[in-house]
Amino acid sequence: MDHGMIGKIEKARRYAEERDRIRFVSFSVTFDGENSPHSVTYENGTWTCDCSFFRSRAVCSHTMALEKILAGMLPTPVSTDS
Q: Which positions ≥6 away from 29 have C-beta within 8 Å?
């Protein structure tokens, strides 16, 4: 393996350990729920899920699980409270 590639591998390893460098802006996933798969998206701080619970509550176990998995990697919502 050439020295350039070794340097990139070492840098990638360091980046993987420094999770605070990464902020997700948008993504979509398929979440295999207990009853069926669900489509979950994240776009500029807003979650959506196609499960019925999310439609009625704007939060669900699928979005909450992803928030836990991605803790520290999602932008913090800006509070408008004064």
A: 39, 40, 41, 66
DSSP string, the chain: --HHHHHHHHHHHHHHH-GGG----EEEEEEE-SSSEEEEEEETTEEEE-SHHHHHHS--HHHHHHHHHTTTTSPPPPP---
Instruction: Give per-residue pLDDT as tens, 6-60.
Output: 999 999 999 988 888 888 889 999 999 888 999 999 998 899 999 999 999 999 9
Residue with tokens 């902020």: 23
Smallest CA-to-CA distance from 59 within 47, 43, 71, 70 is with: 47
